[in-house]
Amino acid sequence: MKKYDLNDTYIASFDNEKAITTKNIQVFYGKDQAFFNGSLAFPRYKITALIGASGSGKSTFLRCLNRMNDDVATVKGDIMYRGLNINSKKINVYELRKHIGMVFQRPNPFAKSINNNITFSLKAHGMKNKKQLRQRVEKSLKDAALWDEVHGELNQSALALSGGQKQRLCIARAIAMQPDILLLDEPASALDPVSTAEVESTLKELKKKYTIIIVTHNMQQASRISDYTAFFYMGHVLEYNTTKNLFTNPHVKATEDYISGNFG
Amino acid sequence: MDDIKRKLLKPSKETHQESIGRTICYICTTLIVLMVILILYFIIARGLATFTVNHVNLWDFLSKSNWAPTQVDAHGKPEIGALPMIVTSFSVTILAALVATPFAIAAAIFMVVLAPKRGKKILQTVVELLVGIPSVVYGFIGLMVVVPIIRHIWGGTGFGILSGTLVLFVMILPTITSLTVDSLEAVPRYLLDASLSLGATSWQTIYKVMLRSATPGILTAIIFGMARAFGEALAVQMVIGNAAIMPKNLLTPSATLTSQLTTEIGNTISGTLPNNALWSLGLILLLMSLVFNIAVKLIGKKGMINNESKNR
Amino acid sequence: MNPRIANKIAHGVIYTLVAIVIIILIFLISYILVNGLPYVTPHFLSAPSQVMNAGGGIRDQLFNSIYLLILTLIISFPIALGAGIYLSEYGSGKISGLIRTTIEVLSSLPSIIVGLFVYLLFVIRFHIGFSILSGAVALTFFNLPILTRNIEDSFQSVPNLQREAGISLGLSHWKTITGVIFPEAIPGIITGIILSSGRVFGEAAALIYTSGQSAPVVNYADWNPFDAASFLNPMRPAETLAVHIWKLNTEGLVPDAKQISSGSSAILILVILIFNISAHFLGNYLYRHITSSSK
């Protein structure tokens, strides 16, 4: 395996409005350091892709952004959101996760009906009005491009849906909370090509309303849907640029090798 | 915007929910731990009273074979020799384990290797049913069937260690079998395939590869079975004869620690020496169940170390 | 010895031993049912027991067994649930290891020891006396380790993805547990409760000095649990079916002790069989119901 210079980095900066910024993120599992250096600024209402080989730390980094690593790892560094450093004990993580939602690698709908998958968390957060709930279900399913397929069977078990439908239900469930930011951790990796295409087209629609950060190991996917791309390598962010520039004109050797398939 | 910022810095409904939930779980768990501490404390305190309050010599208690707590011997000391019960308890336990182990291992091999589909299902049901039969029913059948048969063959009363052994053998059989099955199933498939592909017969493979590498698990299974036999009270009490005297052979009436406790504790007055002496028998039972526990832990640890060194 | 011959002999021995085990079980079950079922008549089930005369029934013992089981579950289930959730969801590291060991110690204690402890503390020291309540406490000690373990396993078998899904939606871990994990763990928990009920139902050693060895006549029309004569009064002594069998065979005075024991054993076995079978089917049914595509 080739060795790359971890200090050879190229992090571009942009002047558009930022949804969330990170500074010097480091992650430790016990004494082992899993992530070393992540300083990135994510533009609002854009899709940013995090790419890299498996084990490069992209998922670990993503999970820092809504504090999903709290129980398993120690995270150091600053994560600025709405002028607050959210990587702090003072922050109410439950409130935070309402604004920064997440969709996981494997579709994980609850063992409940399609309708209750979406309303369960809404009710838990205090939404009681039936009409309001119904509207929210319809809207989030429409946004996730699932409404046309399931609107007649909202009371059926979500576990009976196909893989792609399940994943779009998980997206609908996340956006029903009306978050600012949507984090997606390889949302299409467990799906077949048809379902992947469904999910991708859903995401392109969603960026009108949400800031999206997506982890993927599929470079074609990153180039198809994202506006910005960050390249991760062995727990470091080596390059960050607009997707177009990163893929056509990589500044760092590791990035170039990775996107041209000469990697590893 | 400011509203969200303020909410992010304040505890919410979820924060309270979480602390209430955690507290409930902590209380329940603490309750169980307290219960265990309470049992250990009470049995130990009560069991030690014979020696601390009544000043019975510990060695006499363990080594003498006269059990008559209401009487005193020539030196004016109470006759509290627990050896007969200790010997009987260990005898039935060890004998039952000796009888049960071959059956359990045979059944486990049958389930895992020889007939892993239908045979396993059948024996699984057999094991579950054997576990399900209550110990008084075992005792009752022992009393109705085993004791008369032994009386018929060897004479005497039929009550004694042999009857106790036969009843306990069936009772601990399912325990040893199901744990042995677990440990045989844990033997990696490739070891067996390797042995068979080298031309070994299935018995050679079972004996030299499977049973060898499953030995710690099988030992654990046997100890669990022995722990069950040692602590079993009523089934044994119904067939052992309940005579607190040194057993001469397997056919004379005798008493185990549990049977002596069961029959006598209601006939003694709390705080008196005869009562305290019984609690001391209880203390032996408690300590033995801890010993069985520790033995299982030690074997588990050793097995793990062995496996680790193999893996390296 | 020739390995082929050794192989044959070994197989022969194994098959023989297995056959003996199966024969023992068939003998046990058929002995109990053949000897016991003829005595199981409506009169046997509905008549009170006799002290000196033949012809007694097991009405009160049967009811006591059921009542004691229900009371035991009412006390032990919530505690086991809390502890099981702790071990599966919140516990980690050394402390939960220590707690697991403690629970193992509890489960390995002989039931007679547990019974005598409750006798010492509740019956004598707290002056509660031989009573259903004391018996239920003893059975709770006996039942807690099994139930806790089962609940922990049932929670553990729910994939971690479900926890992450709940937590990522801003729910508290507790709300995720109660609203998402618990419903999915229910089939396993129900199966465990029924199986442990079978054990509780047949237990006698922990009860002879706690719920006692007498079945006073109670009034089944009196629904006030605070009345001394009410069948629901938890402070009255209550001999159970299993204790009844033991008592009849050790110091029974009735001439038909053997017949009553046989009948009672048959009832015990049948109830436990029904528990086992229903645990199996109900668990499967609930599992399919919760995960299936139908409404």
Unreliable segments of 5+ consecutive residues of chain B:
308-312
Give me the CATH architecture of chain C, please: Orthogonal Bundle
End-to-end C-alpha gap of chain C: 65 Å
Largest interface: B-C, 82 and 88 residues
Largest sheet descriptor of chain B? 2 strands, antiparallel
Could you spell the SSE succession of chain C in H and E letters?
A: HHHHHHHHHH
Folded structure, characterized:
The complex is a heterotrimer of chains A (264), B (312) and C (295). Chain A has 264 residues and is α/β, with parallel strands linked by helices. In chain A, 34% of the residues lie in helices and 24% in strands. Chain A has one domain (10-260): P-loop containing nucleotide triphosphate hydrolases (Rossmann fold). Chain A has helices at residues 58-64, 93-99, 114-124, 130-143, 147-150, 163-175, 193-206, 219-225, 243-248, 253-260; strands at 10-11, 18-29, 32-35, 41-43, 47-51, 74-81, 84-85, 100-103, 181-185, 211-215, 228-233, 236-242. Chain A has a seven-stranded mixed beta sheet with strand order 1-12-11-5-10-9-8, with helices on both faces. In chain A, strands 2, 3, 4, 6 and 7 form a five-stranded antiparallel beta sheet that branches. Chain B is mostly helical. Chain B folds into two domains: 13-79; 83-311, MetI-like fold, CATH 1.10.3720. Chain B is built from twelve helices and two strands; from the N terminus they run H-H-H-E-E-H-H-H-H-H-H-H-H-H. A two-stranded antiparallel ribbon of chain B has the order 1-2. In chain B, a hairpin with a 5-residue loop joins strand 1 and strand 2 (78-80). In chain B, helix 4 (83-114) runs antiparallel to helix 5 (118-132) and helix 5 packs across helix 7. Chain B is flat and about 90 Å long. By secondary structure, chain C is mostly helical. The longest helix of chain C is centred in the last third of the chain and has 35 residues, at 257-291. The radius of gyration of chain C is 23 Å and the shape is globular. In chain C, 50% of the residues are buried. The chains are: A alpha/beta (264), B mainly alpha (312), C mainly alpha (295). At the B-C interface, helix 2, helix 4, helix 5, helix 6 and helix 9 of B face helix 1, helix 3, helix 4, helix 5 and helix 6 of C. Chain C: Its main location: membrane. Chain C: It comes from Philodulcilactobacillus myokoensis. Chain C: The chain crosses the membrane at residues 12-34, 66-87, 99-122, 128-147, 266-287. Chain C: This is Phosphate transport system permease protein PstA.
